Each structure stands twice: as structure tokens, then as C-alpha cells.
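re: ur question from yesterday

yeah so i grabbed the chain u mentioned. its 76 aa long if i counted rite. heres the sequnce exactly as i have it in my notes:
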Amino acid sequence: MAPAADREGYWGPTTSTLDWCEENYSVTWYIAEFWNTVSNLIMIIPPMFGAVQSVRDGLEKRYIASYLALTEVLQI
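ran it thru and got these C-alpha cells back, copy pasting raw so excuse formatting
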């Protein structure tokens, strides 16, 4: 496997000067830090599920907005 600096992924060459946890594009060509992305799904999926369930239940739009806002706030 090539060193991370030599590997280019789908989104172009790596521009970061520091790798925190893992090598870029070591698992897939599309995701720079694969395991970091997978571990963050636990923060994204539940609010998305809540938003979908709010739509199905016919709740007010403020509930949908609050669930979607949680996905944004958790990623900052």
C-alpha cells in the first residue's frame, strides 16, 4: 500500500498536512478517513430517522427542522 501522501482519492489529492487517526483513502477511494466516517454515523442516523418518522406521523415542520438541525449541530 502506498503512503498516504502518495494516494489520491476521488475528491482529489490530499491537502491536509496532518493525519490524526488513520491514513487517507486506505479502505476506499471515496472516503479519506473511512473508520472516522463510520464511527460518526451513530451521530447522524438517529436524527435522520427521527425526521423521517416525523414526516410519516404528520407532525409539524418544527419537529422535522429540529431533528435535521441535530445532524448539523453534532457534526460541528
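noticed a couple things. The beta strands are 8-9, 12-13. also Residues 30-73 form one domain.
anyway ttyl
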